[in-house]
Each structure stands twice: as C-alpha cells, then as structure tokens.
Amino acid sequence: MALLDWMSDVAGPVVRGDGVLLRPPRAGDYAAWSTLRDGSRDYLQPWEPAWPEDDLTKAAFRRRLSIYAREMELGHAWPFFVLVDGGKTLAGAVTLSNVRRGVAETGTLGYWIGQPHSGQGVATAAVQAVVGYAFDKLKLHRLEAACLPTNHGSRRVLEKSGFRNEGRARAYLKINGEWADHLLFGLVEDER
C-alpha cells in the first residue's frame, strides 16, 4: 500500500514557516485529515461551505488529490497541508487558488486549522509562509482573501499577515448552506 501511496502522491513544493511545514496533500494523509476534519466539524462548519455527505470518505479524498494535481499542473492552484511538530502532525490546510497570470498576477488565499491547533499562531505562520512563496517564488503581484465578518480569528490572521480590509461583498459565498457577506482583504507585493 505504501508503494501505491507513493506513486499517487501529489508532487509539489515544500514551504517552511515559523514552526510549520507546508506541502501538498498525499494519499497517505487520508487518516490524519479525516480524523482532524471530523473532530473539528462543529468548529469549522460555521465558516465553510456545507460538507457533502461523503466529504470525509477515502473516495472523496482521492478526488480532491486528483483535482489538486490537475490544478497544480496547470499553475492555477497550490494546495498545502499545514504540519506542525517538525512535520509530523497535520494541523490544517492553506490553498493559493484562482491564480491568474498576465495583467493580473494574482491569487486567492484560503485556509482552515483544526480545532486542536487553533489559537496557537499556526494559521498565521502558514498564511505568512504562503505569502512569501506566492510573492518570492511564483512572482505574483497581489493576493486576495475573504472571511465572514463574524470570523474574528480569521480576520486577525489576515491582518497580522499584512492584508488590508478592502470592503464588504454582499452574498459573496455560500457558507454552511446560506449566502453570506464577506470582508474582502488584499495584499500587494510591494506593501508587505
């Protein structure tokens, strides 16, 4: 099974930050990922789109890996699992998606941290590491992110990472089954 996991692993960059290691998800991460997501369901659900019934299944995880591999191959997204304890423990994920080149040179940042790791600076360290990767390695010019106005923790992560609040978008994303307003944040490379 380990050989099959190795053969199906998503290859990609490894990014290090303050106490975090970021790397693309692998097939062998399924158990840790599903356990962390399931144990953090009540904590995460108010801030995320509704989870499909099969969301935590191995088949759904394999579909995610396939999508991640295709998006990375096209240069449209860079998904990372956030690991702590010297790279041994899965704490969450951060994704740079919707990467647009040409006149935009921009991408959208999203992230989640499992409840056992919240409030410990893990999200901030992960976001800051991806910001450095996006600007220094991918040569993007601008990053964007959004969060619910009531998600004070996520807002603080963005502010500590240099993002500026640029306004409010009405009914921006469908969160937990309802269209929800979001605060929009941006960070331009020369302002970090």
| Terminal CA distance | 44 Å
Strand count: 8
Report the radius of gyration as a whole number of Å.
16 Å
Name the strands of the widest sheet in spatial order.
1-2-3-4-5-6-8-7
In CATH, what is the class of the domain at 15-141?
Answer: Alpha Beta
Q: Any idea what the shape is?
A: globular
CATH superfamily of the domain at 15-141: Gcn5-related N-acetyltransferase (GNAT)
Low-confidence runs (pLDDT<50, min 5 residues)?
1-8
Estimated share of beta-strand residues: 25-35%
Number of helices: 6
The SSE order reads HEEHHHEEEHEHEE
Largest sheet, if any? Answer: 8 strands, mixed
Structural class: alpha+beta
Please identify, by name, the CATH architecture of the domain at 15-141.
3-Layer(aba) Sandwich
What is the third-level CATH name, the topology of the domain at 15-141? Aminopeptidase
Mean pLDDT: 93
Helix content: 25-40%
